[in-house]
């Protein structure tokens, strides 16, 4: 796996900067090897997909990438550094994520949800906010303004005042993206961003992800929807039973018979099940 | 009529006192789902902190009772209360964060007894400080204590004004803090979903400390208000006040700040009105606690989520 500049078939130039590099990551739970010696690299301005049938170790691997799990062996480097131990520090380092099951703050407005995402980038201590100094007021105004910009960016202009729990499903997904972007990430991890979406919402999600990629962020997507992932991703890593089955461009992975076999199952191997 | 207004003001000032303490229960519960039963003692410690501040100031001023003593006493009381609460959180509750719910509950009772006995046994041992084994008269500060004020023929205790003003100011401040500052938004976020908050870059431990500190500061103000209103303080005053305030928090809907205020005022009014207007054997001051807890039982039976009805922690 090279980190030099390569030109993808799409003509999109990637590899300007290595954002995330996982080397020989293995995760064992007792006797079970959930992730077995997986390598993975993400560059800035690149969308990388992570696919695999159920039980392939996607989620475990994802949790290793986000620092929720410490790999049994191997290491994950983010921006050249080993991930810090606390989730909060991972966010501060520049990694943000959305969730497979929407996890917004239901009783806060959309705008407030995004403003919470800004929290780790503001210096306001509780005490200085009590004193209500000019620095506090400036920071508060900036936070509000930036949050409103982000809502507009994800296509939710003018909806900042609605409580998150009252928003339509597609908007809740977009709001999660806006909240993640509010933390000023270098890398955005999307956990099944189109789960439960209709085709139109999926298309909008795709446009949004392209837009974010074009702004220079690195993006990792876990997804079951194969058509979505092959449209979207510059590169795809396919995990099967904890191991890397294949890693390559979307076209390469899509046409690999082993991927189809892993998902649909060949006549001799029925256990994979259909998940595409 | 004058009697009714008297009872109304009595009820409101008592209720405001409960409300100020109840906010501390509710804020902490909203963030960590912990009933901090030592919170009543924080109220007591706040009052003693203010008294100590006045005594120490007295060494320089010769026991001045000028009005400017009051803000200094408030700050002193709040500092002592906040410090106690933060140390308590750090060393007694944080190590039990992931323990079964019963463990911090028992710890809270232990801290409560520890703080009471600490004041009872050691306060008088400090040179220049009065013995705390019995009630101590609270310093009479010019302007804040003294003769009742005549408002259109109605005599009103100055302490009543003090307590109600304290509640209004604290409530407004709290509303602003929770809704209009980054820290307040983070508190709301943690109360709604601590795990996600952590993954969104919020230092949950810090938010918990802030919740304890805010509750303690308000309890300290209540402690001073108690001293001003009732004229004396003692080491066990936190027990019943804490229990009543907890009742008030549940009454209003625990986890909900407005609920704590509404619950506190309701409880105070019910106590005062029941004591004055229920005739015969079950009336009178001796029965007021009974009616207070009867109200709690009725609420728990018919509206277990409390008056303001948020089943989960709602917008504060």
UniProtKB/TrEMBL annotation, chain A:
Family matches, as CDD domains: ABC_Mj1267_LivG_branched
Keywords, sorted A to Z: ATP-binding, Nucleotide-binding, Transport
Gene: livG
GO MF annotation list: ATP binding; ATP hydrolysis activity; L-isoleucine transmembrane transporter activity; L-phenylalanine transmembrane transporter activity; L-valine transmembrane transporter activity
Source domain of life: Bacteria
SUPFAM superfamilies per UniProt: P-loop containing nucleoside triphosphate hydrolases
InterPro entries noted in UniProt: AAA+_ATPase (IPR003593), ABC_AA/LPS_Transport (IPR051120), ABC_transporter-like_ATP-bd (IPR003439), BCA_ABC_TP_C (IPR032823), P-loop_NTPase (IPR027417)
Pfam families: ABC_tran, BCA_ABC_TP_C
Listed name of the protein: Leucine/isoleucine/valine transporter subunit ATP-binding component of ABC superfamily
GO biological process, one term: L-valine import across plasma membrane
PANTHER family: AMINO ACID ABC TRANSPORTER ATP-BINDING PROTEIN, CONSERVED COMPONENT OF ABC TRANSPORTER FOR NATURAL AMINO ACIDS-RELATED
Gene Ontology cellular component terms for the protein in this record: plasma membrane
Domain (ABC transporter) ranges: 20-266
UniProtKB/TrEMBL annotation, chain B:
Stretches that traverse the bilayer: 12-35, 42-60, 72-93, 105-123, 159-178, 207-225, 245-270, 282-302
Membrane topology: Multi-pass membrane protein
Pfam families: BPD_transp_2
GO biological process: D-alanine transmembrane transport; L-alanine transport; L-isoleucine import across plasma membrane
GO CC terms: plasma membrane
Entry annotated with the keyword Transport: yes
Location(s) in or outside the cell: Cell membrane
Keyword S-adenosyl-L-methionine among record annotations: no
Key words of the record: Amino-acid transport, Cell inner membrane, Cell membrane, Membrane, Transmembrane, Transmembrane helix, Transport
InterPro entries from the UniProt entry: ABC_transp_permease (IPR001851), BCAA_transport_permease (IPR052157)
Family matches, as CDD domains: TM_PBP1_LivH_like
GO MF, one annotated term: L-phenylalanine transmembrane transporter activity
Homology family: Belongs to the binding-protein-dependent transport system permease family. LivHM subfamily.
Name the UniProt record assigns to this protein: Branched-chain amino acid ABC transporter permease protein
Organism annotation: Micropruina glycogenica
Gene field: livH
